[in-house]
């Protein structure tokens, strides 16, 4: 059960103290207080865990400071979408909104190779009205002999250049706690010219200790990729780990499933789960067509599979698109064969917009027929 308190509730107030004293006295109930500091208000939620079936919603609602009460099912307590749940399905970060009704494109390099390519990429994004990007600094690779990413060495120039080209959020995978500290330090050193969305890759979806560490900070939002060989439920529980530790600014990423049933694509595209995740949880949903499809093959209609599949995800209501581009894919150190070319960026963005407009029309149509 979640008690949502009136906004800006003061934890020093007599009412709040009275509430806490009452809750502490309940037998077989533990509580966890979560405070969310937004730009305009401070929201406090109290999670009650244990034998909450014995609690009456009306009684709980009549307690001091309590504005709303949500009875949650066992599943995805914090990030889940529960009955009569009016908690938000969005969050704001560094001036950008991430919600179940917004769409942000994160085009960029799979892996940072050099400053020149980063600058060419970011300039192209700026010139095409983009404020988000992807830039891999820490790369989890199958072979220990493959390029592992430039790590902390590339962070200062990536952040500086992002600031120069007006990039507000960079999606960047981390695989270890030390990477979080390195990102924090480099942002500080460069004067916080941009923001970072920490990415947990598909190989780490169930790295529970990493999830707990990333969940304990609220400075950076998190893009959690679905595990490529586990059930959707298992991946959604992984997202819940982040929230249960305190960070609920989580985007859930679909990136295809590992099976040869998807051949000749790199993975079996799973964007049919976009509406499922939006129904089960309050998370915005990201699609990654690059790691799903993995090639630049085109259909006889002249449209790349990558673009077809992006359109499918966006038309199903996706809220974020993570996609690999590279100025010279032949020179890319990671995933060159699946990278789109910079001259394809305006084409890609316009195609995404067509799919987005179609999605919005479909929503309006559904609303009309529901009346
Ligand atoms: C990536 O986005 O760079 C990546 C490695 O993705 P995934 O974890 O989905 O394979
Ligand atoms: Mn990649």
UniProtKB/TrEMBL annotation:
Keyword match Transferase: yes
Q: Which UniProt keywords apply?
A: Transferase
Pfam (any one): DAHP_synth_1
The UniProt entry, under InterPro entries, shows:
Aldolase_TIM, Class-I_DAHP_synthase, DAHP1/KDSA, DAHP_snth_FXD
Q: Top EC class per UniProt?
A: transferase
Q: What is its EC number?
A: 2.5.1.54
**In terms of domain of life, where is this protein from?**
Bacteria
Q: Name one GO molecular function term.
A: 3-deoxy-7-phosphoheptulonate synthase activity
Q: Which residues form the DAHP synthetase I/KDSA domain?
A: 95-351
Q: Does the keyword Transferase apply?
A: yes
| Residues covered by the DAHP synthase ferredoxin-like domain | 1-74
- Its signal peptide is none
UniProt protein name: 2-keto-3-deoxy-D-arabino-heptulosonate-7-phosphate synthase I beta
> Which species?
Candidatus Nitrotoga arctica
Phylogenetic lineage: Bacteria, Pseudomonadati, Pseudomonadota, Betaproteobacteria, Nitrosomonadales
């Amino acid at each position: 059960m979640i008690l949502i308190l009136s906004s800006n509730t003061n934890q020093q107030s007599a009412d709040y103290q009275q509430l806490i004293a009452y809750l502490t006295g309940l037998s077989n109930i533990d509580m966890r207080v979560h405070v969310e500091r937004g730009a305009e208000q401070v929201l406090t939620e109290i999670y009650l865990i244990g034998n909450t079936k014995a609690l009456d919603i009306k009684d709980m609602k009549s307690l001091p400071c309590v504005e709303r009460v949500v009875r949650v099912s066992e599943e995805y307590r914090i990030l889940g979408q529960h009955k009569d749940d009016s908690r938000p399905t969005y969050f704001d970060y560094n001036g950008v909104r991430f919600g179940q009704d917004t769409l942000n494109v994160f085009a960029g390099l799979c892996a940072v190779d050099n400053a020149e390519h980063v600058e060419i990429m970011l300039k192209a994004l700026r010139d095409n009205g983009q404020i988000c990007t992807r830039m891999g600094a820490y790369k989890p690779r199958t072979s220990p002999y493959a390029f592992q990413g430039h790590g902390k060495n590339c962070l200062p120039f990536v952040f500086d250049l992002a600031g120069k080209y007006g990039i507000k959020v960079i999606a960047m995978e981390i695989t270890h706690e030390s990477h979080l500290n390195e990102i924090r330090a480099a942002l500080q050193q460069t004067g916080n010219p941009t923001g970072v969305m920490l990415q947990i890759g598909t190989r780490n979806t169930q790295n529970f200790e990493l999830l707990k560490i990333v969940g304990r900070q609220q400075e950076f939002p998190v893009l959690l990729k679905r595990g490529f060989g586990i059930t959707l439920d298992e991946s959604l529980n992984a997202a819940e780990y982040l929230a249960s530790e305190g960070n609920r600014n989580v985007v859930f990423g679909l990136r295809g499933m590992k099976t040869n049933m998807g051949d000749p694509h790199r993975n079996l595209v799973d964007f049919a789960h976009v509406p499922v995740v939006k129904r089960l949880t309050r998370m915005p949903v990201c699609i990654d067509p690059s790691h799903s499809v993995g090639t630049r093959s085109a259909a006889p209609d002249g449209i790349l599979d990558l673009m077809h599949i992006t359109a499918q995800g966006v038309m199903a209501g996706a809220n974020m698109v993570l996609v690999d581009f590279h100025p010279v894919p032949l020179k890319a150190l990671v995933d060159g064969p699946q990278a789109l070319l910079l001259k394809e960026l305006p084409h890609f963005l316009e195609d995404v917009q067509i799919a987005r407009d179609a999605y919005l029309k479909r929503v309006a149509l559904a609303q009309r027929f529901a009346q």
